[in-house]
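Format notes (please read before filing issues)

Several people have asked whether sequences and C-alpha cells are stored in separate files. They are not. Every record keeps both together, in the order shown below: the sequence lines, then the C-alpha cell lines. Line labels are part of the format and must not be stripped during preprocessing.
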Amino acid sequence: MTRREQVAQLRADTRVHYNCCQSVLLPFCQVCGLERETAFKLGEYFNAGMRMGAVCGAVTGGLMVLGMAGAGEETVKRFREEVQGRYGALDCAALLKRAQDRGLERKPHCDAVVEEAVALVEQLLLEEGRQV
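Then the structure lines:
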C-alpha cells in the first residue's frame, strides 16, 4: 500500500480520529524508527495548529518526519516553501480561512493538505537519497 493510500485509509477511519499531524507521521513510522502507537501519541496535540490555529498539523508532521529521517536544512526549507506556495499559508487558521473563502469544506481541504504533505515529504527524502 502506498503512503497516499495509507493516508486515505487513516482519514476515512471513523472509529479513530487521526488528526493531520498523526496522518502524516503514521505512514512514515518505519522511516522514523517509531512504533505506530508512539507516532500516534507524538502527534496527538498538534491538531488544529496545536489547538490554537498555529502551524498546520500536516506541516508539523512533515517537519517531524524530515527531522527524524535526517533531512538537511535546505530540504526542510524547501518543504515549508512548497507548502506555503501551494496553499498560501502555513498556519491552520489561515489555511482554513483561505479554504472557506474558496467554498471548500474543512475535511476535504485538510485531507488534501495531508496527502500533499505526505507526497512532498516522500519526494524530498527520495531526492536527498534517503530510504523511504
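For reference, the curators noted about this record: The first helix runs from residue 3 to 12. The chain has a mean pLDDT of 96.
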